């Protein structure tokens, strides 16, 4: 996202299309309780599923049919299938799903995903994984005609943060009013300074630099 989030080409010409991808994810089955609903029945979001053959911490609990790792891997194999093939209204009716729930339980399928199965979670294999994504980002940059190796957008935020830092210093130490910011930022900064006025700012309370 930092490399390919650009609005102009490598020659400085405004692009007639959007660039950059939005990446997010979760380990294990955490994603099922945060964004899987979105990828299954909301907007189409291409997914990468990354699985590991050999667990670093396999646990077998008495009474369970599989280990904790096989439990996770069961979801690794199942979720891409669910995205690809979905579930039709006809299938749901054969399962005696109530008619009023059929539209809500129907999955259209045909949602793209990639499954990557690593032998183990070793430094070498993680390096291979990073190389795949670095290569993909570079190729996207070539295709879009942008420079994937600069981040000028980050610099603006840093510059503005420097101005805020100076303002906080003079407001806390010298009681100077907030100046040079838009109305919204001025209002929020004022609120922040008022609410944190009881926080010690005496240098004697600060930790020494290491």
Describe this entry's structure for a reader.
This protein has 210 residues and is mostly helical. The chain folds into 2 domains: 14-119, no CATH class; 153-194. Helix content is 44%, strand content 8%. The chain has 7 helices and 2 strands, in the order αβαααβααα. The chain has helices at 36-41, 68-85, 89-94, 102-105, 123-144, 152-174, 183-195; strands at 47-54, 113-120. The protein has a two-stranded parallel ribbon with strand order 1-2. The longest helix is centred in the C-terminal third of the chain and has 23 residues, at 152-174. The protein is extended.
Uncertain runs: none
Q: How are helices and strands ordered from N to C? A: HEHHHEHHH
Helix and strand composition category: mainly alpha
Total helix count? Answer: 7
**Beginning-to-end CA distance, first to last residue:** 33 Å
Largest sheet: 2 strands, parallel
Helix content: 40-55%
Average of per-residue pLDDT values: 91
Estimate the strand proportion.
Answer: 5-15%
Shape label: extended
Whole-number count of domains: 2
How many strands in all?
2
List the strand order in the largest sheet: 1-2
> Rg, please?
26 Å
EC number: 5.3.1.9
Subunit structure: Homodimer.
InterPro entries: G6P_Isomerase, G6P_Isomerase_C, Phosphoglucose_isomerase_CS, SIS_dom_sf, SIS_PGI_2
Organism: Coffea canephora
């Amino acid at each position: 996202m930092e490399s390919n989030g650009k609005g102009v080409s490598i020659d400085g010409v405004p692009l007639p299309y959007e660039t950059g991808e939005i990446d997010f994810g979760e380990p294990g089955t955490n994603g099922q309780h945060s964004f899987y609903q979105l990828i299954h029945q909301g907007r189409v979001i291409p997914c990468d599923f990354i699985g590991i053959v050999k667990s670093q911490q396999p646990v077998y609990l008495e009474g369970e049919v599989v280990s904790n790792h096989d439990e996770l891997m069961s979801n690794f194999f199942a979720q891409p299938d669910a995205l690809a093939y979905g579930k039709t209204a006809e299938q749901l009716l054969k399962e005696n799903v109530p008619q009023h729930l059929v539209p809500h339980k129907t999955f259209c399928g045909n949602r793209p995903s990639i499954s990557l199965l690593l032998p183990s979670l070793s430094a070498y294999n993680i390096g291979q994984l990073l190389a795949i994504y670095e290569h993909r980002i570079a190729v996207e940059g070539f295709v879009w005609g942008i420079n994937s190796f600069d981040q000028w957008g980050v610099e603006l935020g840093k510059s503005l943060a420097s101005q805020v830092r100076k303002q906080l210093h003079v407001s806390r130490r010298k009681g100077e009013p907030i100046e040079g910011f838009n109305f919204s930022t001025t209002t929020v900064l004022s609120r922040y300074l008022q609410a944190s006025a009881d926080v010690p700012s005496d240098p004697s309370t600060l930790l020494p630099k290491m």
